[in-house]
Amino acid sequence: MSPQPFKQEHLEALKALGSERSYASGETITGVGERMDSFQLVLDGEVEVVNPFTGVRMVPSTLRAGQFLGELNFLSGGSATLPMRAAELTTLLEVPRAAMLELMSRIPEVGDHVLTVFSARRRLQVEEKRSALTVIGADRDPAVQRVASFLSRNRIPFQQFDLDEKNEDVAPICAVAQHRPSVILGTDTRLDDPTPRKVAALLGLDLEISQEQDLDLLIVGGGPAGVAAAVYAGSEGLCALVVEDTAIGGQAGTSSRIENFMGFPTGISGADLTYRGQVQAMKFGTRFVMPRRVTALNHDPRGFCVTLDDGEKLCARSVLVATGVQYRGLPVERLEEFEGAGVYYAATEMEARFCRQTEAVVIGGGNSAGQAAMFLSRAARHVHLLVRRHELASTMSHYLRDRLEADPTITIHYGSQLAEVHGDDHLRAVVIKTPDGNKRLDASALFIMIGAAPNTDWLSGMVDLDSKGYVLTGADVGARSAYETSQPGIFAVGDVRSGSTKRVASSVGEGSVVVSAIWSHIDAQRAEPAPPPERIVA
Questions:
Q1: Could you report the per-residue pLDDT of 388-407, keeping only the tens digit for each?
Q2: In sequence order, which residues have a C-beta less than 8 Å from that of residue 433 and are 6 or more positions away?
Q3: Considering the entire predicted model, what is its pTM?
Q4: I want to staple 163 with a disulfide (CB 3.0 to 4.6 A). Which of 137, 194, 358, 529 is the partner?
Q5: Distances in whole angstroms, Cα of residue 13 to Cα of each of 75, 104, 106, 109, 116
Q6: Sign of the CA dihedral 410, 411, 414, 419?
Q7: Do the Cβ atoms of 419 and 438 come closer than 8 Å?
């Protein structure tokens, strides 16, 4: 028998919370799409990962006594994306999820060990594309491509194939997909009209929300500021929930490499940085719901209540506005027609896949645009960076400017802007307006990363905004905290806050610091005596 990864006293604590269950050889332990509602430790026997399409063992390694099943989806009660099967008569110790999370919080050594293993497994699944979730034909269908982008940006493992791929292993998958652009789970589930929301529901990411939840804090926005607040709120014992409408990481999640964030001398992508924060926040009990969009905010006796895009309501004692900004579009004819078919607003591994051996155009003069150009130059034949100004010194970091100017695969077009886009069912070329006249570029990938607008429409007039729509806080509205808005109990951090420094490090700092003021607000609320019962006059 393999040595136990848990100390004996920790194993005894697990046994006190769980119960034993035996599985016969060949019996499925966890099926594709089943919720991870218990922590499963192998006491005796052998467990194997199964290829969901062929039914054979997927990888040579198996789990034996002392090892445990599961990956990061366990933290949120999500669904399994790979089936697990008993390779011989196997006995598991099964601990209910809620009890296991409480134990992980109470005994840090247990939590650290479980999180380390779960994180390593998720990383391996993503890198080796081990999953029963399969995306086919993303290069042909914008709807399927949006799902692939959602999965990629949220670090959710999935397989991806082109419709024309010639591979014996792909044949059974294409049969399920009926040789059409598709999103499928296992061998039985094919999503019609696939959307990120449908896939999230399938994977248990789109949590069922109860109006009876006793939330201390509702964080709207899962960018660096929102995720940092989620970590600190959880560590301070606040019951917090993060609502994100696209992907954890926000605009920072589209940044391929951040080199000036302290502690990462070789750089880190925005997606990796915020993903680590998300895992850390889930460790402390903070929950994440996505993709869900907040459309309105109001105040009622239950506290602050938001309305979600499907009409559902969610209430909390306090609200943190961390919705950041979004890139503006351009008033160019036919541009929207090519969104998802050559026009993109993020430059990640997913989008880079679609500009291999072609020319790519990046529009913007900020750090995000510069990082995108550097990243895409690894895949594209050539990258053109369009900058409206005649210099980059005032908008881009010095180290990034030097690299762009020295890279032979990148051309910077100063004083230039997009004039036209051309194509059939996909972008094929663009026309740019330069100081020397119009120029046509045969490019099938266009990345728009220009001036941003704050996401504040959903605030419904409940807080004061500046002339550009950013949220006013602190002394500007006579608030007690530098991050509190004109409405006590509503706070704002990060790019959406008026006067903030638009940098990832600043957003992380604000998200971390604001929790102290939020905790004080909630503590004061709890200390207030309950109002006397209303007198009834006969």
A1: 999 998 889 999 999 999 99
A2: 416, 417, 418, 419
A3: 0.85
A4: 137
A5: 19, 11, 11, 12, 19
A6: negative
A7: yes
